[in-house]
């Protein structure tokens, strides 16, 4: 596929946004995380960078203007972004299995999802658990990993009436994504099941169970 | 040491917030008025980013369990010690004797008041910050706003002198005169995509702070800007200070508790020097934006930081 024009634009006085694409695309996302790994890994000779924040197709780089010259940094980011390939990010990716209790009280929306997709509950579960998902980014709440891409037949818009409190560990779907809620929070996704696997531990060396580039499989338990 | 008698409307422990944790989905948090945070701390001899209390619109009352030096900055909540005692003004530090009661009232000229303790308030440290994240429920005191009976402790320090903040350096984002609050903005990542008309309307129109504003976002009311809904974005990283333009055409200014990613275009970002103003806005306040080029904004930031650094080293 053709590579989207890279754009490096300022986001306030001490941050740049690097846009590497405009859609949810595995290859663009891999390049985003490849650039993040390079910037966070050092060896580029740029001082004063904070750990960057990667998203689907773009990446935020916050810097210390006392240590990095903004104009020069903007140029360096453009060059690094152009140089990075989708293969950079794959190296560190792990495969994580997440055991899920589907349906019942753990997945209160399973019946509704089945009705709306015209499938049986078992077929919904089987399809959801049949795919190896990629972690595209973390966001929304600590350790909340956006996983994609969900098989087409399961794609539904978010709930019209978001829940005030989704239980911790809920496995949910919305549009082309699936995720596990790491904490009990408000949420508008459809709840399919629940896992006991802890997704977030702020005291751990790596607080988030999942990191971008990981592959994730849901396992019926 | 202070014990909470009444917590006030919404009081949390805040410092300069969490840097470099956005990649985990962890929000920045931290004081909404960064200059008042620095002032409250420097007034009691703390590092400028030590943990303090941030009180919102209506302050709390506190029993003084052990003699301590406190600093007050930000909005004037007409603090006083026990009824009829001397008023304690913002922009000053005050020695409090054991057994007295420190009482704050409603804010009369801004939204947020900062109370520091010499030595810094002991807070739950998570990912390099003691700021309260009420959504993740960590930091500060059990990751929540203060409740009656909470105890605010600070490490023992040598007795320090009361101080006054110099009048020629702003000690907060509180308005010094009447009229709409003016905030300088720099072009945001989607200014080009939204076009010159949107950029022009953002500064030509007067905005009113909506009642649904909080530490996540300031919702601005006014005559909506057409055309914002035509920009479709996949979710991008966000930062406090971003001015988002959702399809409603009514801007939302992201505050410290905003999520790390978002899907609305960002035509502008509030300059860091003027961001404390956003932390002192109250529902109903009027706001105007003014464009500033990024180089000038960076120069203003350097100047502001050097003033605060000079003050910190002179004390």
Essential attributes:
heterodimer; A: about 220 residues; alpha+beta; seven-stranded mixed beta barrel; four-stranded antiparallel beta sheet; 5 helices; B: about 325 residues; six-stranded antiparallel beta sheet; 20 strands; about 15% helix; globular
Q: Report how far the terminal alpha carbons of chain B are from each other.
A: 24 Å
Biggest sheet of chain A, open or closed, and with what strands and sense?
A: 7 strands, mixed, barrel
Count of strand segments of chain A: 13
Number of helices of chain B: 5
| Mean pLDDT across residues of chain B | 94
Helix fraction bin of chain A:
10-25%
Q: What's the main sheet of chain B like? A: 7 strands, mixed, barrel
Determine the structural class of chain A based on helices, strands and strand pairing: alpha+beta
Succession of helices and strands of chain A: EEHEEHHEHHEEEEEEEE
Oligomer kind? heterodimer
Low-confidence stretches of chain A: none
Derived from helix and strand composition plus strand pairing, the structural class of chain B reads alpha+beta
Note the beta-strand portion of chain A.
25-35%
Q: What strand line-up does the widest sheet of chain A have?
A: 5-12-9-10-7-6-13
Instruction: Extract low-pLDDT stretches of chain B.
Output: none
Structure explained in plain terms:
The complex is a heterodimer of chains A (221) and B (315). By secondary structure, chain A is α+β, with helices and mostly antiparallel strands. Chain A is 23% helix and 28% strand. In chain A, the strands form three sheets. A seven-stranded mixed β-barrel of chain A has the order 5-12-9-10-7-6-13. A four-stranded antiparallel beta sheet of chain A has the order 1-2-4-3. Chain A has a two-stranded antiparallel sheet with strand order 8-11. In chain A, helix 4 crosses helix 5 (121-128). The longest helix of chain A is centred in the N-terminal third of the chain and has 16 residues, at 26-41. The mean pLDDT of chain A is 92. Chain B has 315 residues and is α+β, with helices and mostly antiparallel strands. Helices cover 15% and strands 25% of the residues of chain B. Chain B has helices at residues 34-42, 191-194, 196-204, 275-279, 294-314, and strands spanning 2-6, 12-14, 52-56, 61-64, 68-74, 79-81, 87-88, 92-96, 101-103, 112-117, 151-152, 181-187, 207-209, 217-221, 236-237, 242-244, 252-254, 261-262, 268-270, 286-291. Chain B has a seven-stranded mixed beta barrel. Chain B has a six-stranded antiparallel beta sheet with strand order 7-6-9-4-1-11, with no helix packed on it. In chain B, strands 2-3-10-5-8 form a five-stranded antiparallel beta sheet, covered by helices on one side. In chain B, a hairpin with a 7-residue loop joins strand 13 (207-209) and strand 14. The longest helix of chain B is centred in the last third of the chain and has 21 residues, at 294-314. Chain B is globular. The mean pLDDT of chain B is 94. Classes of the chains: A alpha+beta (221), B alpha+beta (315). At the A-B interface, strand 2, strand 3 and strand 4 of A face strand 15 and helix 5 of B.
